[in-house]
Structure formats: structure tokens, C-alpha cells
Design a protein that fits this description.
This protein has 542 residues and is of the alpha+beta class. The protein folds into 3 domains: 23-99, Ribosomal protein S6/Translation elongation factor EF1B (Alpha-Beta Plaits, 2-Layer Sandwich); 116-242 and 275-286 and 304-449, Peptidase S8/S53 domain (Rossmann fold, 3-Layer(aba) Sandwich), CATH 3.40.50.200; 460-541, Immunoglobulin-like (Sandwich), CATH 2.60.40.3080. The chain contains 12 helices and 24 strands. The model is unreliable at 1-21 and 106-113 (pLDDT under 50).
């Protein structure tokens, strides 16, 4: 909660500040989000008058979210004046440019990395003893959506795990499953508005391979998941395409939830190994908004931070600075488990590290299947995305039993297990929200330990750490029920400084975190309880 509040403040403060880099946008295009009662034709007419040239609808990027892509002749119209006019129009909720996002790969510089040290580092051999991906205990086929320009999906190590929309008949020009998309048999391409796989790149092939290259098949490499379905969202480069691709994911997961598994897809995570350096969430409200929309239907999103040494909290980054609780942001560690110098960081916005430098996975060269190194946050991020999918495969029925009935609750539970079970890492402490690196073995073990549900007992604060504290205060608690309770912070004079209501989850470690970095030095009290039953402990801010 504090992370998101502080992110909001940083965004507001920095809105008028000079930025080191202006994001690239597509000339002559503007994204609009209209209110429910606004008329698109009326808005187009008013904008055309303001521009002195026709402003037309190029595409309905996400019609259910009222997001539209408009086109105009920028050689005639004053673009900045037109954007300002659009923002003043009644019925226009958001107006922004159609920015471009960039792949976040770095050039490999050491071809002699030991193969797949990245998987050892995050404990995959231990995790694979418990789960290898594929189905939930309820029989749902686990799907991960990968947003890329394109990938070699017929690579021998990827082809067995590619997702197909079995409710759609390919090539008949009919929307067979009624999801609003025609012939989306192999996924969706927002640019061409069909299921064409996009332009093959080794970047997309490698990202897919880390998530879900087929494992234990006596060939090539393995992904975090041996068996998982990889949904292809191709030609995702401009912001309109990003939003459109996420909209497809949201529709397919919602359809799965509401048709009792008859249609759609059980998508549990999306992977975005791209972004824009030095950009702030306040300038990309539509992009940031999709993460909450996806979370509501049960989809976690995982995003790569920058491949430069930058504090994204102060200097900006997209999508790192989006404040959704359904977005996990990742930076890059090397094979020695040290944060790479060339990776973004931020104690407010970057959640954890994962192995990127020296990862070894599937590649494609001139459309031919290959294997080799793949580096950067582009490589780190799919390790986390793959971990999300793997946790849904665990043989713990209650852990994901509410995935369709309470999808947002279930998604946050999975997120919490990953973030609360990182491997502590001194190079990530103070520069990420968790201070640690992805540990899939620890996450799977935590679920196993809590498979029957966390024990209840008398209301208690079990420990407060660290004490004294400099930045993040962590409090482990115990409750007699899984109903809402309040955490509050007081100064020594008894003045309340902060309050937050939490609902304990039977599959969490019952740890509450508070950003104490802005507190002056002194003695404080953390209290926890509900109604008149309260437990309190003192702590020192140094």
C-alpha cells in the first residue's frame, strides 16, 4: 500500500519536471479514453475543427475500456495544441500519445557461460521435484501470455507448448467462440488484427524459452515450466498495440471465468520484456491502467525494468513506475547472484531481482532454431513470469481453488508467495521492495508448508524486524480468524501517523510491511488488531 502511495506522489511531483529523455511516439496518432456517455463521432468532429484537418478513428484499441486510436495529419495540425484541446473536451477522460516501447535485451558478451546456471540459481531442480507446470489441481490448462514482436514458435523446444484457441476454427472468417476476435486460433496480432505470428526475432524466442521451453524431452534446454501453454501476442511495440494485446488477455481470461471453463483461456500471467527509459507513469495512464484491469480477472503481469544504472523512483521508467499491485517489476542479477550494474533499481518500484545475465535458452537465427546466451532484464523477467505459472501447478487444491470465483484474491496470493519468499541479497537490499532475488524453490516449499492453511491462534505480533529500522519495517502477526484487521503506526506522543486495513490470507506468511524511511529518528509504536482487541510493539527508527 505504501509503495503505491509513494509512487503516486513521485509521479505527481515529477509531472512538470524536465526529463532526461523524451519517449518516442508514432507521428500523427493519439490515444483517447472516453467516458461511458461520450459520443466518438462528436469527439472526432470537435477535434477535426480544432486541428484544421480531419481527425479519424484508426482503430478501437480496447472498446470495452473505451480506448481508441485516432489519426491526423501532423504536417497540418499542431500536435501539442491538438493534444491539449483533446484533454479539454467533455467526455474525454484521457488523451495521450501512442508511445513506442523497446525490447530490453542486452548484447551477450561472454559466450562461455555454463548452460542454464540461471535455473540452478533460483532453485529450479528443487522446485521441479514438486511441480513442472501444466495443469492446476482442478484441471485448468495453465496459460502464460507473452507480448513480443514475434518468436520462432515452431522451434522444437517451443512448439509442444504453444497455445491454440481450440474453440476457434482457423481460417473460416467467423468468430466461433464469440470473444470478439475472428480466427484468433494462434493468439492475436494487434497490428494486423489476426493471429499472424509476427516477425520472428531471437528476443521473442528466448523470452518464450525461459518461461516454457519443453523440459525433460532429451533435447535442447528447459524453461521454468516443462509443460505450460504459451499464448502469442505478436507485433506488440507501440502503446496502442500493448493496450490492445492486454485487452485480448483480459477478455480471454474473463471468458474462461464466466463460462465455467468452456471458452477463453486460463491465463495466469503476462510477460513484458520491453519498456521506455526515463518515462513516468503519469504520462502513460492508459498503459498503467491495464494492470489493475487484468488483475481483477486473475492475471498477474510481470515487467522488465531498464537495462541502465538508474533509480527509476526518481528518474522514471515504464512500466516500472506503474503502481498496480498486480504488476511485478524485475531487475537483473548475474550468475554470482549480484545485481548487475546496468540494471534499473528503486526501493519503491522494483520488486525483486532474477537471473538475466548469462541465461542460456532457445534462440532463432534467420528463422532457424538455435540455443545460446540471452541477457538483460528481458531474460530476468520471464523467470518470474514462469514462476507464477509453476505455482498454479502445485498439488495444493486450496491454494488456487478460488481462481475462478475470486480471481483477484488468488492472483495476489500467488504474488505474495513469490515476493515473500525471495532469497535475501545484499546487492538488492535498499534498492528493491523485497531486498531479494527470485527463489522458486523457497516459494514452492512455502506453499507446501501452508497447504492446509496458515495456523490460527490468539491475536499476536510475533516479531518486528529489523529493530532498529532504516527503511522497511516487517511485522509477522497471528490472528484467530481470516477477517479484516488494522495496522496503525503511532509516535511516542500517541499521535497516529498511518493506518491500513489488511485481511489475513491462509496461504501467506502473515507478514506486514511498512515503509519507515520517511519517519524521523525516534521511538514509535506499531499496533495491530480489530475492535477493542489490540496488540502493540515498540520499534526504533534510526
Amino acid at each position: 500500500m505504501m509503495k503505491h502511495f509513494l509512487t503516486f506522489l513521485l509521479c505527481v511531483v515529477s509531472f512538470t519536471a524536465l526529463r532526461a529523455q523524451t519517449a518516442e511516439r508514432r507521428s500523427g496518432e493519439m490515444l483517447l479514453q472516453l467516458s461511458a456517455d461520450a459520443g466518438l463521432e462528436t469527439v472526432l468532429h470537435q477535434l477535426s475543427r480544432a486541428a484544421g484537418t480531419p481527425v479519424t478513428l484508426k482503430s478501437a484499441v480496447a472498446s470495452e475500456w473505451q480506448v481508441y486510436l485516432l489519426a491526423f495529419d501532423e504536417s497540418v495540425a499542431n500536435a501539442e495544441a491538438l493534444l491539449a484541446a483533446a484533454r479539454r473536451l467533455p467526455g474525454v477522460g484521457v488523451a495521450q500519445w501512442n508511445h513506442r516501447a523497446f525490447e530490453r535485451n542486452t548484447t551477450p558478451n561472454d559466450p562461455d557461460w555454463n548452460q542454464q546456471d540461471d535455473m540452478d540459481l533460483i532453485g529450479m531442480p528443487v522446485a521441479w521435484d514438486v511441480a513442472t507446470g501444466g495443469l492446476t489441481p482442478a484441471g485448468d490448462t495453465i496459460v502464460i501470455a507473452v507480448l513480443e514482436k514475434g518468436a520462432l514458435l515452431d522451434h522444437p523446444d517451443l512448439a509442444p507448448n504453444v497455445w491454440y484457441n481450440r474453440s476457434e476454427i482457423p481460417g473460416n472468417e467467423i468468430d466461433d467462440d464469440g470473444n470478439g476476435y475472428t480466427d484468433d486460433y494462434r493468439g492475436w496480432n494487434p497490428r494486423t488484427e489476426d493471429d499472424s505470428p509476427g516477425t520472428v526475432s531471437t528476443h521473442g524466442t528466448s523470452v518464450n524459452g525461459i518461461i516454457g521451453a519443453r523440459g525433460n524431452n532429451a533435447a535442447g534446454v528447459t524453461g521454468v515450466n516443462w509443460n505450460v501453454k504459451l499464448m502469442n501476442l505478436a507485433n506488440v511495440e507501440y502503446e496502442s498495440e500493448i493496450i490492445s494485446a492486454y485487452n485480448y488477455v483480459a477478455k480471454m481470461r474473463r471468458l474462461y471465468n464466466t463460462t465455467n471453463k468452456a471458452k477463453g483461456a486460463f491465463i495466469v500471467a503476462t510477460n513484458a520484456s520491453f519498456g521506455i527509459n526515463n518515462e513516468r507513469a503519469v504520462d502513460h495512464p492508459l498503459w498503467c491502467a491495464v494492470y489493475d484491469s487484468l488483475g481483477k480477472v486473475g492475471v498477474l503481469s510481470v515487467g522488465a525494468t531498464a537495462n541502465i544504472d538508474v533509480n527509476v523512483d526518481t528518474d522514471g521508467d515504464m512500466p516500472s513506475t506503474c503502481s498496480s499491485e498486480y504488476l511485478i517489476t524485475v531487475n537483473n542479477v548475474d550468475k554470482f547472484d549480484n545485481k548487475m550494474p546496468s540494471t534499473g533499481y528503486g526501493p519503491i518500484n522494483i520488486d525483486l531481482g532474477a537471473p538475466g545475465q548469462g541465461s542460456y535458452t532457445t534462440r532463432s537465427e534467420t528463422n532457424l532454431p538455435r540455443y545460446g546466451p540471452f541477457d538483460g532484464t528481458s531474460a530476468a523477467t520471464p523467470h518470474v513470469t514462469g514462476a507464477v505459472g509453476l505455482l498454479y501447478n502445485l498439488e495444493c487444491v486450496n491454494f488456487t481453488a478460488d481462481a475462478l470465483t475470486q480471481p483477484a484474491v488468488c492472483a495476489k496470493r500467488v504474488r505474495d508467495v513469490i515476493l515473500q519468499n525471495v532469497s535475501p541479497n545484499t546487492t538488492l537490499q535498499g534498492v528493491t521492495t523485497t531486498g531479494g532475488r527470485l527463489d522458486v524453490a523457497a516459494a514452492t516449499k512455502a506453499v507446501q508448508n501452508l497447504c492446509g492453511g496458515a495456523p490460527t491462534g490468539p491475536l499476536a505480533i510475533q516479531w518486528v524486524r529489523p529493530n532498529p529500522v532504516e527503511t522497511t519495517l516487517r511485522v509477522q502477526y497471528q490472528t484467530p480468524t481470516y477477517t479484516p484487521y488494522r495496522f496503525r503506526i503511532f509516535n511516542i506522543l500517541g499521535q497516529q501517523l498511518y493506518e491500513e486495513t489488511i485481511t489475513p490470507d491462509p496461504f501467506s506468511q502473515n507478514i506486514w510491511e511498512y515503509d519507515a524511511s520517511r519517519l524521523p529518528k525516534g521511538v514509535y509504536v506499531v499496533s495491530f488488531g480489530r475492535n477493542d482487541v489490540v496488540r502493540s510493539e515498540k520499534f526504533v527508527k534510526k
